[in-house]
Amino acid sequence: MDIVFISRSALARDEFAQQLRVVQPGGTVSVLGGLAGDAASLSGAAAVVLDCRGGHPFEEQDLHRLRSLSPAPFLMAVIDNLESAKAWAVKTGLDDVLVNPFTLLDLHLRMGSMRSTMAQRQEIDRLAHAAQDVANEAERLRTLAYTDHLTGLPNRRYLDKWAEDEAGDAGAFGFQMLDLNGFKQVNDRYGHHVGDVLLRQVSRRVSEISRRLDLVVRLGGDEIAIVQHGALTPEDCVALASRLLAAFREPFDVEGHAIHVSASIGSALYPKDSSNLLDLMRHADRAMYAAKAGDAVSGAGSGTARSSTGSGVVT
């Protein structure tokens, strides 16, 4: 154990160093005449022993500098057998004191107590780091479990969890389901890698158009859901759907290919259409396929949106 002894007295420094070598033959003892300069020079010391006999030569700011070291050393003071000195030691919150005069046995016992305390601190630190590692790993696994690995969006599992824990307190909201038209043809023509890149770009556009308070989820395949907080009417849903469809008027640049795809969007309202997520998804899904059928008939360039009530159709 590396110990630094600080005293203004050269005689005291020599005596204490000799005494420490007797009671701790395998340790390293360094002596200093004061704390002048940067206390960081003490970094790495397991313990610092302050010679406070004959008064209190160390100010609170000195102790603060020592405690600010990383890792913080064990702080012990050698004090006179005076009530004022003991009161000062208690007030400053030192880890331990050695009352003068003392014997080698006293010093040996104090060193033993110091080693025990430091071992406990190290074990506490080890357990704290281990607990933090476990918490970090749990959070990492939770993020993986609730995140779509291709797009980085929340996944269907996250949506189910959100519906279970938070939907009841979310107030009214619109549930929009977006499905790409012609995505299979993109995969067949350019390959699945290009299709994956296209899905990431579509997810990015949808996220940028949706508000930060809205929840954008990849359900799977080429289907994306948007929880539109605060939507009360089909017209509210159509307003967002219109902005989303407008984003598909521009082609997607995927590895040098200008890819044109359109989208079909179906919407439903919570709790007007249903207060159950599965039922709400069914309403939105039916509206989406009605929109897709309308898109196939009309040949709309960017797609079609339809609400679960059948009103508010956008092309």
Written as H for each helix and E for each strand, in order along the chain, the element string is EHEEHEHEHHEHHEEHEEEHE
Fourth-level CATH superfamily of the largest domain? Reverse transcriptase/Diguanylate cyclase domain
Main CATH class of the largest domain? Alpha Beta
Radius of gyration: 35 Å
* Biggest sheet: strand arrangement: 2-1-3-4-5
Under the CATH scheme, the architecture of the largest domain is: 2-Layer Sandwich
* Integer average pLDDT: 87
Strand content: 15-25%
Question: Can you characterise this structure?
Answer:
The chain is of the alpha/beta class. It has 2 domains: about 1-125, Response regulator (Rossmann fold); about 155-305, Reverse transcriptase/Diguanylate cyclase domain (Alpha-Beta Plaits), CATH 3.30.70.270. It is about 45% helix and about 20% strand. The protein is built from 9 helices and 12 strands. It has helices at about 10-25, 60-65, 85-90, 105-145, 155-165, 185-190, 190-210, 235-245, 275-300; strands at about 1-5, 30, 45-50, 75-80, 95-100, 175-180, 215-220, 225-230, 250-255, 255-260, 260-270, 305. The strands form 3 sheets. The chain has a 5-stranded parallel β-sheet, sandwiched between helices. Helix 6 packs antiparallel against helix 7. The radius of gyration is 35 Å and the shape is elongated.
